[in-house]
Amino acid sequence: MAEPDNLVLVHLRELRADLDRLTEAVDRRFERIENRLESVRAAAFGESVLGRYAAAEVEDKLQAIERRLLALEAQA
Asked: pTM score > 0.70 for this model?
């Protein structure tokens, strides 16, 4: 007659398998979250660059207007 397996070892193996599956699931979820955060970060940086470009353009226009105004004031 065969000797039964050690019940503790059987349970430990089952726990290890469950833990491995859980770890894989958590890793996949973290990877998805990191990808989403990277997308948000890229979008925010893109918006920031666009905002700086637009602000620089407005600044250039304001400087041109100020130069014209100073020229008109000098003529008066």
From this structure: no
